[in-house]
Amino acid sequence: MLLMLAEFDRHAGSYEESVDDPIRTRFQGSQSDFFHRRKRDLIREYFGQDRNSTRAMRYLDLGCGKGDLASLLVGDFGAVSGCDPSAEMLASATRVETRVQGDPGVIPFDDGSFDFVTAVCVYHHVPVAARLNLTREVRRVLSPGGRFCIIEHNPFNPVTRLIVSRTPIDSAAVLLRPSETCSLMKEAGFTVERPRFFLYVPERLYSAIGCVERVLARVPAGGQFAVFGTAP
Ligand SMILES: C[S@@+](CC[C@H](N)C(=O)[O-])C[C@H]1O[C@@H](n2cnc3c(N)ncnc32)[C@H](O)[C@@H]1O
To answer: In angstroms, what is the span from residue 9 Cα to ligand 1's centroid?
Structure first.
């Protein structure tokens, strides 16, 4: 039998070292999950901080890797699932229900299974020609009016570009511009909101001046950006 290894199966054992970078380490400070927490907070902010509004929702993290973000959101949603082509990455995602994507272009869940889907730092690893189909798959597994959020590295931020350029697992990455991300979601039928930029303030300053992130959310300069869309 031919065993197909997903690309990230090779990186799973040394994933943390593979994404290690001195700038990234300084930015996240003493909180090793700072980047995941910022995404969790962005999602909470989007849904209005009122966790009762999300508790009845079914959430899928597409390309969840080791399940870090999904685990942080377990208490926020009624059900939390993850999927990824890499079984080795999923082996660490023990706090949520996970399924392996045997075909990276197919999401292994039925139509309308979820009310919210995220794809965090996934699309830059998806071949350009396969991105629209994957986005249509997200629409398929969402319920009518369900929400989709793509979070990506911001190619307009020079520090992000520098880190990506020297991160071995990103050697084949093709970054998406915010406008490209919006177009992709629109083409798949989503109503799309303006991108929100974040990761301006490092962890050590975040409790003191994290509020500036809100002021700068529409300025295309943060380390990463998020695009939220709504399915028809
Ligand atoms: C940089 S990691 C990010 C993992 C996780 N989302 C996070 O933020 O920690 C990229 C992940 O995307 C997954 N991936 C690559 N192609 C994919 C596809 N077509 N569908 C879903 N996930 C994919 C990889 O296996 C890997 O786990």
So the answer is: 11
